[in-house]
Amino acid sequence: MTTPRPLAESDVPAVASIYAHYVEKSVATFDEIPPGVEDWRAKAAAIIGAGLPFLVTEEDGEVTGFAYAGQFRPKPAYRHTAEDSIYLAPGATGRGLGRLLLGELVERAARAGVRQMVAVVADGGDPASLRLHTAFGFEQAGRLRSVGFKHGRWIDTILLQRALDAPTTR
């Protein structure tokens, strides 16, 4: 199986494409218009420039998924708290890539000085992200009801949190 590695410049178009799938076909993200490649270049530069991890997996030279840790909120006091994001190529789900990405992301974020990691999971009917985060020691910290409206319906989000000095599971 593939090992997650840091994002390379050449990976950015694939990241944009993978994310566009979720924007257009799911409620996993509340974006309604897919960000372009240049938007992703800027986002990746900001994340990496802040010393936070942005990882990809690949198989046979094709990016199969990505994950990154971004500062949870822009205010300075949040600088030690990150929010994780994980997206897999549509044909790459169900093979353990999310587990690989989240495990490596948690470890690298901890080394980067992140003390708390937050996940904001859309409660859109697919429990995979919730199960993945729970397997890595994330605990539910709350629910925001009907905070997103996408594809003709209201969507809740589930907030999960994990201290990064806690042990990980694989």
Q: What would you note in describing this structure?
A:
Helices cover about 30% and strands about 35% of the residues. The two termini are about 15 Å apart. It contains four helices and seven strands, in the order βααβββαβαββ. The chain has a single domain, classed as Aminopeptidase, CATH 3.40.630. It has a seven-stranded mixed sheet, with helices on both faces.
Task: Supply database-style keywords.
single chain, about 170 residues, alpha+beta, Aminopeptidase, seven-stranded mixed sheet, 4 helices, 7 strands, about 30% helix
In the CATH scheme, the class would be Alpha Beta
Mean pLDDT reading: 95
Largest sheet report:
7 strands, mixed
CATH topology: Aminopeptidase
* Spatial extent as radius of gyration: 15 Å
The largest beta-sheet arranges its strands as 1-2-3-4-5-7-6
Question: What class would the helix/strand composition place it in?
Answer: alpha+beta
- Per DSSP E runs of 2 or more residues, the count of β-strands stands at 7
Low-confidence regions: none
Q: H/E order of the elements? A: EHHEEEHEHEE
Report how far apart the termini are. Answer: 14 Å
CATH architecture: 3-Layer(aba) Sandwich
Number of helices: 4
Task: Report the sheet-strand fraction.
Answer: 25-35%
Fourth-tier CATH superfamily name: Gcn5-related N-acetyltransferase (GNAT)
The helicity comes to 25-40%
Enzyme class: transferase
Pfam families: Acetyltransf_1
Organism: Nonomuraea roseoviolacea subsp. carminata
EC number: 2.3.1.183
